[in-house]
Every structure is written in C-alpha cells, then in structure tokens.
UniProtKB/TrEMBL annotation:
A family per Pfam: T-box
Classification via Gene3D superfamilies: Transcription factor, T-box
GO terms (BP aspect): cell fate specification; positive regulation of DNA-templated transcription
SUPFAM superfamilies: p53-like transcription factors
Domain T-box, residue spans: 18-207
Cited PROSITE patterns: TBOX_1, TBOX_3
InterPro entries: p53-like_TF_DNA-bd_sf, T-box_DNA-bd, T-box_sf, TF_T-box, TF_T-box_CS
Protein name per the record: T-box domain-containing protein
Length: 330
C-alpha cells in the first residue's frame, strides 16, 4: 500500500479487501497474462474489492491505473517467463501524485464520485476497463500498456473537493496477487485453460465434457430438432456414426403439427439405388411415401388461368412399372 502525499483529516484507516483471492492465486502461480488488443480487452480475473473505513457522508472518487512491476521486458521460453532486456519507458509517466505510471489519465470508476456509504454497501468492480496497445486510444476506459511488460493494478481513493479544487488523494492500494504480464496472445497454455474454465464469457470455448452449467451444454437432439424439423423427409441428413444415428433417430417434430415421428433408414427396394450413389444415403422419416398417381387428375395452375398459358398444357405419358407394365396416361 502506498501512502498519500496529503494528510488525512479523518484518522479512521481505509481498508480494501481483494475479492476472488483463490482465483487470483491460481493465475499468479502460473504468472498471470492479460491480453492487449487495438480495440481493448477487458481483464480477467476482474479486479474486485470490498471497502471499509470511509465516511458515509463524504464524496469519494475511485481511480485505477497500472504501474510497472520492474525495469525489464519479458519473454516466454521453454515453458517459463524470463527477463529479456530493459523495459520500454516511452509509455511511462512520472506523476506528482501517482508516481511512476503508464501514460494517460487514470481510469475513473463510472460510479465516481459517490458517497462513502455507497462504496461500502457493495463490492467495487473495475469490470469495464480495457487494456490496449493502441498508441492513441479513443475511449476513456482504455489503458495503454506495452506487450511483454509486467504491471500491477493500483486503486486510488480520492476525496472530492468543492470550489473547483482538485480532489485530494487519500490512499493508493496495490495487491501482489493481481500483477500480470501484458501479451497480445496467451503464451502459457495453462493460463488459457484457466481463463476458459472460469471466465463466463469464454463458455463457448469449453469442451462439452468440461461444462458444468446447464445452459452451456449443447443438446444435440434439440439442435437437430430445431434445424431439421422444417425439412422435407427426403432432405434429412443420414447419421455418420452410431452416436449420431442414435441422437437423430429420437425425436423430430413436424413443423405444421405437434405430432412426433420416429425416424429410421429407409431400406427395402430403394436400398440398392441409395447405396450405389456417390452421395451419402438419405435418412427417411417412417411415414407413407407419397404416390404420384394420387395427383394424376390434378390440373396445373397458372396465374389468372390465361388461355395463352393453358394452351401450353398438353397430355403427356409417364411410364411406370405397375399393372403388368401397362402404360398409364395422365
């Protein structure tokens, strides 16, 4: 913890308690990495603290910035981080109040300024701050960092002052568990796995067997039902393996009714033609095959039944192997 350069009028000590310490410890044991992008990337784990010792009726401003942990540049070699020369100091500032910090103004919490009772009523989260390597960020919630440099987040508590005077810095807090190396791509695969496992926004990258939340699980039957129920029976895909066949043969809902049909491969006399094709065989729903002769007496429909259109209609003959190979006229 860094002490303020200004004396406090109130002698009550201010305490900040880091939240999610167990999660931070897991990352710290592997050397935490945070991603930088041009558009800005949010931190995970999120910096969250509980506050004690503020005056409930005094206005406070909470700010966040990042300071270098050392004077080195880092690289990841043979499964471990090693120093790799001197740090790049072009992105650093020497501030009278905050000391050595990265360029740009500290990030101000969106709820600042607010009364002490507000800050102490719930956990204070810095979930909206984004880390970037863009030289000139366009948004106030973007913090410029250098890749392959090690940083520590710092939370500054300032007391709001009226009459247009600058806010008074009361105290600055740092937490050893929250230091990290800024990267443009994760170097340690174990860090990647931890991020995917614990970050709620990374559920899509989890393997199905690793998911514990019901909503994150992919129900293959529901997927097939949703995407294939609207297709005609002759366009249904054939399963490529036993598990897919078991899944796809369970429930297919008819789009126009609530009836449920069980599906199975269509064999019998059509089997030889399906299997001889270069295309994969079709999965046909177990329902009566439409008979083309049921529509033998149906007439074609043209717009407005215009005579010129009707003149193009003529009788044609369709050969079918029925009734001892006698032709049938339509």
């Amino acid at each position: 913890m860094l002490q303020s350069v200004y004396p406090r009028a109130d002698a009550t000590p201010i305490h900040l308690d880091l939240q999610d310490t167990e999660l931070w410890s897991r990352f710290e044991a592997l050397s935490t990495e945070m991603i930088l992008t041009k558009g800005g990337r949010r931190m995970f784990p999120v910096l969250r603290v509980a506050v004690r010792g503020l005056d409930p009726e005094t206005l406070y401003d909470f700010k966040l910035d990042f300071a270098p942990c050392d004077n080195f540049r880092w690289r990841y070699v043979t499964g471990q981080w090693q120093t790799n020369g001197k740090q790049d100091i072009t992105n650093l500032n020497q501030d009278r109040r905050y000391g050595v910090t990265v360029k740009g103004e500290p990030y101000s919490h969106p709820k600042s300024p607010n009364y002490g009772r507000f800050w102490m009523s719930d956990v204070v989260e810095f979930k909206n701050v984004k880390l970037t390597n863009r030289p000139n960020p366009v948004k106030d919630d973007h913090i410029i960092l250098n890749s392959l440099h090690k940083y520590k987040p710092r939370i500054h508590i300032l007391q709001s002052v009226s009459n247009g005077q600058p806010n008074v810095l009361l105290e600055t807090f740092t937490f050893p568990l929250t230091s990290f190396i800024a990267v443009t791509a994760y170097q340690n695969e174990e860090i990647t796995a931890l991020k995917i496992r614990h970050n709620p926004f990374a559920k899509a990258f989890q393997e199905p067997r690793d998911r514990t939340d019901y909503e994150g699980q992919i129900n293959e039957t529901d997927y097939r039902t949703q995407h294939f129920s609207s297709l005609p029976y002759y366009m249904l895909p054939f399963p490529t393996d036993d598990s897919a066949a078991s899944s796809s043969s369970q429930v297919l809902r008819h789009r126009s009714s609530g009836h449920i049909h069980r599906s199975r491969p269509y064999y019998h006399h059509h089997n030889h033609s399906l299997m001889s094709s270069n295309s994969p065989p079709l999965l046909l729903v177990d329902q009566p095959t439409p008979n083309m002769f049921d529509y033998a007496n149906s007439s074609p429909t043209f717009p407005h039944h215009h005579p010129s259109a009707m003149a193009n209609w003529s009788t044609f003959q369709l050969q079918a192997s029925i009734d001892n190979n006698h032709p049938r006229h339509i």
